[in-house]
């Protein structure tokens, strides 16, 4: 670690103030400090600030400053991160910490309605973008509502499988170009084009790397027109496995639903009402689907899904059930507050059923209750969400939860699931080396 | 650029235990055959009878990724450049060994692995020929949906190294949209796999960082590719629009409605005239200069007492003038052999004269074609996929085109295009034989900038060559433009000067207009100098990737706008990274 | 139809190959089996172009590419220029010989051919009972040199089939020649080929129809004999075509049953792409057993490596081609592959992986392998 100049704290504050102005510089809020501690960071011994730049230029100056003095840059978005990032204490110890909050950089720089492309600053939340796009009949896409709370920068920097829809793919693929500031303060812009053959896709070095390669300041994203029609449907299938098979069949027939979810019986009862799966139908699964697009095509997709469900022994249910799901999904209807699923794994098509079975078996073995649903289906696979319950049906907590969760996750991994936020061990050295080349002083989110 | 001082004998000795005597060569004729790819600038030299100026020091044919890794490690030790070679069909000089060294021909690594029907993913080695790959998975009921016009003569590895696109990319995506994972031997000599559900992993998307690296970060040895079920239905159709602008608008509307045809090809006026116009009747004369029209299945028989084998022509004997597109475009015809010879010489000279004045031709072309053909622009549409959905989608596409003012010309133009979709490669020979050079420039941008991009690049090229264009590879947010240009210049030195001028001005215009300098052909040597304008500061990231994956700079030096020099870095992982993470 | 044999046409073909991105490379079995750029049809034709234009000197080393070809014509079926590298390269070999720059492995080939002829004629005389020969007959069965050399059992099987069909009009040709001369053309020895053709034509005069089990020689006799001014009075049939003609008579006769459910049929290149004989062998087989297609069937058939004298000039590549051909069968769990050419049968048998059995058509139809069982 580069040596710090004695008394840098005072100089640092002054220098930062000169860049962003006194109103945009403060001590980090306790919540932020607590979260960082929970992720494994050692307590701060040097100065720590929350800096709120208003432009990419200011970000560049901040990073250049940090490089000079060896301060750690910790990007802050909306704090909606799904999975914690384990922090490496050694990398954070003994150096000033600058929490750089991009939320003042929240403007729409250009909305190109001819190309259906929008150029936004990274601190804009997806929800705010949707609010701007909606009156023009445009949208980022049918992404899950939980995702919309994040900033664009957060959505692109932190990769979780949940940020996808069968219709619009993974959000990273909606990126046509990004702007970012490198450790030495240089700003890079990747050219905006639908597709290119100009070497590696450099934007993909920036997306998913959690600010370690560059600090995202802006992005150019695809937008979509509001669909002409939307159809909602719900189907009951004999089992969770049958439902997954029905999804696979429908996707093979090229159905492109806007959203698709499969609940097991316990989860369906909790989300959609106790009578959706009558007693004795404990193996049943419920599939809800929204298809959207030009009317005939959306109807065709709806019918393809329905045939697939019927082929797997399914029975169509009242549309009202699907409408209930959709209202909750789009935030129009709160419903009862449900605990967030503690286990989220991604599994490829062939492994989805085995993973579900493995977790059920593990939970049964532990005497732990289980609810599950699958969604975010696309070519690569889907995400399976598991909620662990105690004997009374209440969610587990504390040590009980920790141990049950560990066993369940182990069972899922053994069956071929990949846990959220996994490290790619094979590429570890390359990742480190790339960071070293671009960030010799090791300032960019060094803890992760 | 000078070759590295690599000891050829030492290379041979070090590589011998890896591949054995039979799978290495330093024979002059082998080395010469790996000195070039299909970069038209090099063909100018071929026509002039020049020997290829660059050649490797040695060629090797590995049969496993272990061998490739061993070869790379030897190369690192000796500071020898390494150039991967697939089908050699690249048009940018990406496979040219400008500093000599080791050319690794991947074609003996051409096995097709398992196809997982549940996951719809197939494992294939990088050296497998594209057409053979597609046929093999067709037999199992699947398609990759990737149909570049080079499919017969390119390899899977080449596609991946260049981010190639096929004619149906609008539906199936470019090749980089179909990769589930890669196996790559990096410039460090490591074998890495980039599989795994990217969705769940933290960190950069390594697959997307290695795709398109054109052999500068690693040698791709195999890949897991996403396949689709073979289509149950294919619909092909031709339309006519009054102008390029109308056609572009029609395509935009189709794409932004959420429809995904497989094929979208809009030909500008000149391209329509030449390829779909009246002079060529129903059959588009893509393959100029065709031999026997009879059934190629039966071997032709020599005439009675003509001799059992063909006659080898004496050295001065040139083939007949190509009855190709340029000759026929000027409509000169002669009768009888002698007259035909005179006419063909006249034709050749007239063509030559005309093509030495490209601006004249270009300025005549537009009103001429409009007046003669009154056909506007041809638009070819194709859809394929599952039976029911494709039928529904096709109807929606045709309705949308109708609303946009396109006139339906029925199935026939679509089918014609489909039957001759690979014929364009057969134009190279007659065109070069006629003393011309021909090349293509493919750029892309968002819709907003597209017409401006089209006009600027066309104008820039038109100063030096006759140019026509078609629009294809459409996206909801934009499209690619494919310019074809030809000119005549002699001797080779002048031809190359004219050629370089086209590219210099064309790419500059593309960058200025906000387009990308390459949509799917890649960079190679040809566009290296334009990389700075394309990526600007982001070149820092590319250079960092380069030093990470190839610290000694041995992999395909001089390509992708990276320096043509071997560096000898310390090469080892940096010392302070040894500390294990807690 | 333009004549590909004229000097003008060949010049056009050679120039067309030079600038081509090698569109046919996927279809060249020599290129595919070896992975070498030099062995693509483009490179081979380009080399001939450089030689004939004087850019490269005619030497043993420089002409080697002209021999890296079996003449299988798979390149031609996909070439939109209509180029015929298979035939043009043979002409190149002739030109090489004329300049003393032929392939070293074919040194002294004329002598070797002559002594082989003598040997094979003797072997046939010793193997086949004298009463099967006749100096003249309506139909003369002339097995073909590779059949005599490497497939005597298949000759026996053919004779059994003729007996079963009551085809008493068939006699074995009594001639002092065993080969119609294709190998001489493959060696670029056109004069000697003409000489051989004349002798063969004379020997075959007494037979109205000649049946031959060599796929290359069907085309050679039908097309290349007249081109050298040698007129054959006989009708030339491949064995497959003749067996197809015998259909009714074969069906009436009792035949041993076949205990295979299905077989694959490998089209010899020279039958499929030179003579157009593809349906007849399938019909003959289909009466007995289900015929399944190999990947690359009929006009897309892939060469076994046995033609063009490749086994003499590049034996490893030739064997690699045969192995490649049978790999698909092995990958599907093995099976029986039937072919209708003595050369193909030999190449495939010699390179068959375990689980793959190769049979000549006559042996397959006659009920069993020649070495075993009642006749």
Large-scale geometry of chain C: globular
Number of helices of chain C: 19
Largest sheet of chain C: 5 strands, parallel
**So what's the overall shape of chain A?**
globular
How much of the sequence of chain C is in beta strands? Answer: 5-15%
Percent in helix of chain A = 25-40%
**Which chain pair shows the most residues in contact?**
A-B, 88 and 96 residues
Biggest sheet of chain A, in brief? 8 strands, antiparallel
Helix/strand/pairing category of chain C:
alpha/beta
What is the end-to-end distance of chain A?
Answer: 16 Å
Structure commentary:
The complex is a heterotrimer of chains A (448), B (582) and C (375). Chain A has 448 residues and is of the alpha+beta class. Chain A has helices at residues 8-20, 30-38, 56-69, 89-92, 126-133, 152-157, 203-206, 240-252, 265-272, 295-311, 319-329, 352-366, 398-414, 428-438, and strands at residues 25-26, 48-51, 72-76, 97-101, 108-112, 117-121, 138-139, 164-165, 169-170, 175-181, 187-189, 215-222, 224-225, 229-237, 259-264, 285-293, 315-316, 343-347, 369-378, 381-389, 418-419. In chain A, the strands form five sheets. Chain A has an eight-stranded antiparallel beta sheet, with helices on both faces. The longest helix of chain A has 17 residues, at 295-311. Chain A is globular. Chain B is of the alpha+beta class and 582 residues long. In chain B, strands 15-12-14-13-17-18-16 form a seven-stranded antiparallel beta sheet, with helices on both faces. A five-stranded antiparallel beta sheet of chain B has the order 5-6-10-8-9, with helices on both faces. A four-stranded mixed beta sheet of chain B has the order 1-2-4-3, with helices on one face. The two termini of chain B are 48 Å apart. Mean pLDDT of chain B is 87; it is low at 279-294, 326-343 and 574-582. Chain C contains 19 helices and nine strands. Chain C has a five-stranded parallel beta sheet with strand order 1-3-2-4-5. In chain C, strands 7-6-8-9 form a four-stranded parallel beta sheet, with helices on both faces. In chain C, strand 4 (207-212), helix 11 (215-227) and strand 5 (235-238) form a beta-alpha-beta unit. In chain C, helix 1 crosses helix 3, helix 3 runs parallel beside helix 5 (85-98) and helix 12 (239-245) packs across helix 15 (279-286). The longest helix of chain C is centred in the N-terminal third of the chain and has 19 residues, at 109-127. Mean pLDDT of chain C is 93; it is low at 369-375. The chains are: A alpha+beta (448), B alpha+beta (582), C alpha/beta (375).
């Amino acid at each position: 670690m580069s040596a710090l100049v004695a008394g840098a704290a005072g100089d640092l504050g002054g220098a930062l103030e000169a860049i962003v102005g006194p109103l945009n510089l403060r001590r980090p809020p306790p919540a932020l400090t607590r979260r960082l501690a929970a992720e494994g960071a050692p307590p701060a011994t040097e100065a720590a600030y929350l800096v709120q730049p208003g432009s990419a230029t200011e970000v560049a100056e901040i990073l250049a400053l940090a490089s000079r003095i060896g301060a750690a840059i910790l990007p802050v978005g909306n704090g909606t991160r799904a999975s914690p990032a384990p922090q490496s204490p050694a990398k954070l110890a003994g150096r000033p910490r600058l929490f750089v909050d991009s939320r003042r950089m929240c403007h729409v720089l250009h909305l190109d309605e001819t190309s259906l492309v929008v150029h936004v600053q990274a601190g804009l939340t997806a929800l705010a973008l949707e609010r701007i796009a909606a009156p023009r009949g445009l949208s980022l896409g049918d992404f899950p509502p939980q995702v919309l709370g994040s900033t664009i920068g957060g959505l692109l920097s932190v990769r979780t499988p949940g940020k996808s829809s069968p219709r619009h793919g993974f959000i990273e693929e909606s990126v046509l170009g990004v702007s970012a500031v490198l450790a030495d303060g240089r700003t890079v812009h990747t050219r905006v084009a639908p597709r290119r053959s100009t070497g590696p896709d450099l934007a993909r070095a920036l997306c998913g790397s959690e600010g370690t390669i560059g600090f995202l300041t802006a992005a150019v994203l695809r937008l979509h027109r509001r669909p002409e029609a939307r159809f909602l449907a719900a189907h009951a299938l004999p089992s969770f496995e049958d439902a997954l098979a029905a999804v696979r069949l429908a996707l093979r027939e090229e159905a492109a639903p806007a959203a698709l979810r499969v609940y097991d019986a316990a989860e369906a009862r909790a989300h959609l009402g106790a009578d959706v799966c009558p007693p004795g139908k404990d193996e049943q699964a419920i599939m809800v689907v929204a298809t959207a697009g030009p009317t005939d095509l959306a109807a065709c997709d709806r019918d393809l899904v329905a045939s697939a469900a019927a082929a797997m022994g399914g029975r169509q249910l009242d549309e009202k059930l699907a409408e209930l799901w959709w209202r909750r999904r789009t935030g129009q209807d709160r419903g009862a507050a449900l605990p967030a699923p503690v286990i989220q794994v991604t599994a490829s098509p062939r492994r989805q059923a085995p993973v579900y079975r493995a977790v059920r078996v593990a939970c049964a073995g532990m005497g732990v209750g289980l609810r599950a649903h699958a969604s975010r289906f696309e070519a690569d696979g889907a995400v399976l969400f598991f909620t662990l319950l105690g004997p009374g049906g209440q969610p587990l907590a504390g040590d009980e939860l920790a141990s049950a969760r560990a066993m369940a996750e182990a069972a899922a991994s053994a069956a071929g699931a990949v846990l959220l936020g996994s490290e790619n061990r094979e590429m570890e050295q390359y990742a480190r080396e790339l960071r070293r080349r671009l960030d010799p002083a090791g300032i960019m989110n060094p803890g992760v | 650029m000078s070759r590295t001082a690599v000891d050829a004998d030492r290379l041979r000795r070090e590589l011998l235990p890896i591949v054995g005597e039979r799978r290495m060569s330093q024979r002059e004729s082998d080395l010469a055959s790996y000195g070039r790819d299909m970069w038209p600038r090099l063909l100018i030299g071929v026509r002039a009878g020049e020997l290829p100026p660059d050649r490797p020091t040695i060629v090797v044919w590995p049969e496993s990724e272990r061998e490739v890794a061993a070869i790379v490690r030897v190369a690192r030790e000796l500071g020898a450049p390494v150039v991967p070679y697939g089908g050699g069909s690249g048009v940018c000089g990406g496979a040219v060994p400008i500093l000599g060294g080791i050319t690794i021909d991947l074609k003996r690594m051409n096995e097709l692995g398992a196809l997982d029907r549940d996951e719809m993913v197939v494992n294939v080695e990088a050296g497998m020929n594209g057409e053979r790959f597609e046929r093999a998975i067709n037999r199992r009921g699947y398609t990759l949906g990737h149909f570049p016009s080079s499919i017969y003569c390119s390899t899977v590895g080449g596609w991946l190294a260049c981010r190639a696109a096929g004619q149906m990319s609008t539906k199936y995506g470019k090749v980089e949209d179909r990769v589930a994972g890669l196996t790559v031997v990096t410039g460090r000599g490591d074998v890495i796999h980039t599989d795994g559900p990217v969705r769940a992993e933290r960190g950069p998307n390594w697959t997307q960082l290695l795709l398109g690296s054109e052999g500068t970060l690693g040698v791709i040895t195999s890949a897991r590719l996403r396949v689709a079920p073979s289509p149950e239905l294919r619909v092909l159709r031709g339309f006519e629009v009054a102008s390029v602008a109308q056609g572009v608008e029609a395509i935009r509307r189709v794409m932004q409605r959420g429809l995904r045809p497989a094929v979208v090809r809009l030909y500008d006026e000149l391209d329509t005239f030449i390829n779909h116009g009246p002079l060529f009747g129903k059959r588009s004369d893509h393959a100029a200069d065709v031999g026997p029209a009879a059934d190629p299945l039966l071997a032709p028989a020599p005439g009675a007492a003509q001799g059992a084998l063909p006659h080898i022509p004496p050295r001065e004997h040139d083939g007949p003038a190509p009855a190709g597109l340029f000759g026929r475009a000027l409509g000169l015809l002669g009768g009888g052999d002698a007259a035909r010879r005179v006419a063909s010489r006249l034709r050749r000279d007239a063509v030559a004269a005309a093509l030495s004045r490209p601006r004249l031709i270009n300025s005549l072309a537009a009103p001429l074609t409009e007046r003669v053909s009154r056909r506007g622009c041809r638009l070819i549409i194709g859809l394929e996929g599952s039976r029911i959905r494709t039928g529904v989608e096709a109807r929606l596409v045709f309705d949308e085109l109708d609303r946009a003012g396109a006139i339906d010309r029925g199935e026939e133009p679509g089918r014609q295009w489909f039957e001759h979709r690979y014929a364009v490669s057969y134009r190279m020979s007659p065109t070069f034989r006629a003393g011309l050079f021909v090349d293509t420039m493919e750029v892309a941008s968002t819709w907003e900038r597209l017409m401006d991009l089209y006009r600027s690049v066309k104008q820039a090229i038109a100063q030096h060559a006759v140019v026509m264009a078609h629009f294809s590879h459409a996206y909801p947010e934009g499209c690619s433009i494919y310019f074809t240009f030809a000119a005549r210049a002699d001797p080779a030195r002048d031809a190359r000067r004219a050629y370089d001028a086209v590219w210099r001005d064309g790419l500059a215009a593309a960058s200025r207009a906000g387009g990308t300098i390459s949509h799917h052909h890649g960079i190679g040597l040809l566009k290296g100098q334009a990389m700075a304008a394309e990526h600007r500061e982001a070149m820092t990231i590319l250079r960092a990737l380069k030093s990470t994956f190839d610290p000694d700079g041995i992999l395909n030096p001089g390509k992708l706008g990276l320096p043509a020099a071997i560096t000898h870095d310390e090469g080892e992982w940096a010392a302070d990274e040894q500390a294990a993470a807690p | 139809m333009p004549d590909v044999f004229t000097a003008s046409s060949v010049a056009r073909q050679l120039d067309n190959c030079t600038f081509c991105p090698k569109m046919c490379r996927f279809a060249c079995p020599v290129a595919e089996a070896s992975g070498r750029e030099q062995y693509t049809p483009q490179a081979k034709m380009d080399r001939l172009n450089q030689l004939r234009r004087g850019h490269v000197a005619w030497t043993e080393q420089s002409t080697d590419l002209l021999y890296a070809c079996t003449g299988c014509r798979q390149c031609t079926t996909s070439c939109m220029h209509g180029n015929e590298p298979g035939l043009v390269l043979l002409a190149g070999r002739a030109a090489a010989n004329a300049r003393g720059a032929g392939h070293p492995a074919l040194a002294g080939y004329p002598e070797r051919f002559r002594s082989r002829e003598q040997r094979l004629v003797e072997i046939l005389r010793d193997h086949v009972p004298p009463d099967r020969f006749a100096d003249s007959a309506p139909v003369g069965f002339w097995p073909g040199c590779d059949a005599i050399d490497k497939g005597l059992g298949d000759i026996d099987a053919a004779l059994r089939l003729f007996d079963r069909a009551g085809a008493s009009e068939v006699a074995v040709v009594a001639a002092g020649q065993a080969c119609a001369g294709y190998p001489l053309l493959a060696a670029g020895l056109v004069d000697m080929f003409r000489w051989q053709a004349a002798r063969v034509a004379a020997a075959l005069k007494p037979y109205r129809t000649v049946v031959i089990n060599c796929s290359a020689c069907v085309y050679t006799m039908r097309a290349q004999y007249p081109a050298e001014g040698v007129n054959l009075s006989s009708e030339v049939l491949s064995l497959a075509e003749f067996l197809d003609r015998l259909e009714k008579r074969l069906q009436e006769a009792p035949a041993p049953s076949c205990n295979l459910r299905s077989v694959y049929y490998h089209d010899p290149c020279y039958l499929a792409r030179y003579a157009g004989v593809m349906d007849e062998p399938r019909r003959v087989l289909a009466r007995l057993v289900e015929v399944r297609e190999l990947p690359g069937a009929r006009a897309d058939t892939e060469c076994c490596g046995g033609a063009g004298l490749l086994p003499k000039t590049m034996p490893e590549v030739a064997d690699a081609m045969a192995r490649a051909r049978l790999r698909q069968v092995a990958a599907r769990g093995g099976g029986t592959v039937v072919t209708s050419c003595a050369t193909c049968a030999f190449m495939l048998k010699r390179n068959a992986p375990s689980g793959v059995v190769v049979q000549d058509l006559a042996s397959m139809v006659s009920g069993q392998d020649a070495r075993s069982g009642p006749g």
